Amino acid sequence: MDDLLRRALDARVGDVLPMPTPLDAAPGLSARLGVPVLLKREDLTPIFAFKIRGAYNRMAQLGPAERAAGVVAASAGNHAQGVAYAAQRLGATARIVMPLTTPSIKVRAVRRLGADVVLAGDGYDAAAAHAADIARTEGRTIIPPFDDLDVIAGQGTVGLELLHQAPRDLATIFVPIGGGGLAAGVSSVVKTVRPGVRVVGVEPDDSDAMRRSLAAGKRVVLEHVGFFADGVAVKQVGEHTFALCRRYLDDCITVGVDEICAAIADVFDDTRSILEPAGALSVAGAKRAAEAGSLAPGPVVAVTSGANMNFARLAYVAEQAQVGEHREAIFAVTIPERPGAFLGFCAAIGERSVTELNYRLATRAEAHIFVGLEVAGVEESRAIAAGLERRGYPCADLSDNDLAKTHIRHMVGGRTAEVADEVLYGFEFPERPGALLQFLTRLGSRWNISLFHYRNHGAAFGRVLCGLEVPPADRDELRGRLDALGFSYREESDNPAGRFFLRS
Questions:
Q1: pLDDT tens digits, residue range 90-127?
Q2: By three-state DSSP, how is residue 336 classified?
Q3: What count of other Cβ atoms lies within 10 Å of the Cβ of residue 55?
Q4: What's the pTM?
Q5: Three-state secondary structure call for residue 417
Q6: Mind telling me the catalytic residues?
Q7: Which of 202, 207, 182 is nearest to 82 (CA)?
Q8: Up-side HSE of residue 35: CA atoms within 13 Å toward CB?
Q9: Would the CA dihedral through 405, 411, 413, 416 be positive or negative?
Q10: 241: domain range?
């Protein structure tokens, strides 16, 4: 352990990173946390992650025979890219075993770098076992993702760089933890050179092997790990990394998925860059510490460790970020089932920004509405719920209900035998606070609303699907009313999607 600083100083990282990654100011985060926040931009390396440091440093130590035989590694993605990149630079062949759950963007990136990719197992441990078999049968050298002193030393160069870049009154460094290589390297170097600087590790609350190991005084094995932050989904930390983190880390905290998503949004606001979930852990940890009042006064560095984000995940991240930042509150509200009741409910909400509104007629007695509202924090959510209750609308706050956020919000609706003479229309209207209420007010309460779905997609126009119970004799009157609304609309009554899933 004592020679980590020497190893880091002697690391070959300069071969692939001739210039240090930037230490960028985060003005938005700084204002919110009340201390200067700086981002160590490891997401800006050639592979968009810090893993290039440890992988290259380890492989630069290989002898000619080892390079000729090639290397093998197991990785959920970023270490795989580091090994593939290093192999390409050093003229070695690389075989990478990646879990079946690895995001496709990382698989494609590894293949583009010339490595042979083998997909095996549902997590890192299964992939590592398969990589060990390949090493035995093919004579390849295993390049560990974290539990190797040369790998740890390579990651430790992050600490060396930021000590040169950060202000002298640097107070705290937040660093993500998966297997522990980055945390072990950074904490070892920083604590050796500047022991007064706090180093705090951050893990997802569903993949907290290091926190549990530190609490138990020995390495523990998690039965299950979460896969949202796939880059840190490790069931057991390394022997070396555990020993170093136990000695040098000041604390190890955990954060939830919503907090990670909110941190991705925060970094985007400050830098216009999109981090992957594991890459945003340190920012989420800094925010958690500030909220808990445990953030030491003075500048803070958060290591943004990677940006290999699948584009398809962005919609989910944006949705969860609103809840994680307490910018969106979700409610289940009960209203009477009668014409005009839906309009009355929207009037009770007022000109708040609505993020989502789902309703489907179920019985003639009462209606249950799923509604999301933009809020400024938890206190406003509570005030809204209390205000709805006072107006006679029973209300349940679902903002922290994972089932509601993940599934139920997309499942409200379906067929019903209660609806009669239903017609479906799609509408578009300019997206602004109060526009939804204006739309419903203009539509009026002449006919009963049997279905309503609206989601704010962040576009200039809001889109609504609305079902109305309109007897055939009233259809011409309805169309005249719709023409007078001033909003773009189209009839969807014969749309096959509606026939299959909404009509009895």
A1: 999 999 998 887 777 888 889 999 999 999 887 777 88
A2: strand
A3: 34
A4: 0.79
A5: coil
A6: 51, 305
A7: 182
A8: 24
A9: negative
A10: 4-49+149-322
